[in-house]
Amino acid sequence: TQSTWARAAAEDAKFDPEHYVADYAEPPCDSETIFAFRPWWAVAYSALKSVPRLEAGYPGAGPLPCVFPIPAPSLAVPIPAVVAFDDAETAALRELPNKEYLIEDERTTLRGLLDLLCAYAYEHRTSTGEAGPESAWTVARLSGLLSWLDEFSGALEEPLVGVMRRSLAYPRFRSWALADRMRRDALMILCSGRMGVVKALLEMRALFRASDVFFYLNELYVDDYLIWIQRASDAAYIAFVNAALATKVAKQDMGWELDALEAAADEAIAASRGAAADDGAAAADA
């Protein structure tokens, strides 16, 4: 679509190879904390490892595997101990109207959901769960659906490639490892089932509601997703999650020659270390 092409062109213009190489060669001081952070969906995933499938016809019946990725857990049987809502989130759910949606292709809507969850997961991880003044901006900027109204009507890779490209072009910390962690985080939220998705959307809704700039995104998208996902087809959701888990995204898909940039950075680092070692040896001989 025209919006897809315009979005990709804007991302190409925004991507800064020097910024990417700088973060690759010398990650920000808080990068270790960001990667070590254990979000709520990781806790939910650990709990789901021991939960048996309760639907006889569910794909891959039996205990959930103990390693990521995993198929989506049963949606028909709620598991309150895995994902719980606080009082504010429960009150927010009660505020939502009772609406029905006529959706021709649930897959397109689910691809948009994946884009939203990736953007949310990036913000939640990089802020280590402590939302700040830039949190709403981060989610809105990373999501192609929210920033470009892009509906992702193509392949399943499209929303993943789009949001991963944006994570390498816009935020402060631009890292392929972080982009891939964002993807995995979003898949883990999907694997926590309907309740996990609702919790993520509720937290996103709270971010936008507190913003003087992005509050309208709730009425435009988030509220509708919150209402719809609670009634979405289990079969369509499970099929989508399994397809998303099987979808691979590589550095080459970003279109920015990340491997070449990293190789050049590695060579420069090695040369710098070699020069430092030679200087040290010369000083010792003097």
Q: What is the strand and helix layout of this fold?
A:
Elements: H1 2-14, H2 17-25, H3 31-36, H4 40-48, H5 87-95, H6 106-126, H7 135-142, H8 144-148, H9 157-167, H10 176-191, H11 194-209, H12 216-229, H13 234-246, H14 258-285
Helix pairs in contact: 2-14, 6-7, 6-9, 6-10, 6-11, 9-10, 11-12
Give a structural overview.
Helix 6 runs antiparallel to helix 7, helix 9 crosses helix 10 and helix 11 packs antiparallel against helix 12. Helix content is 62%, strand content 0%. About 9% of the residues have low confidence. The protein has 14 helices and no strands. 35% of the residues are buried. The protein is an all-alpha fold and 286 residues long.
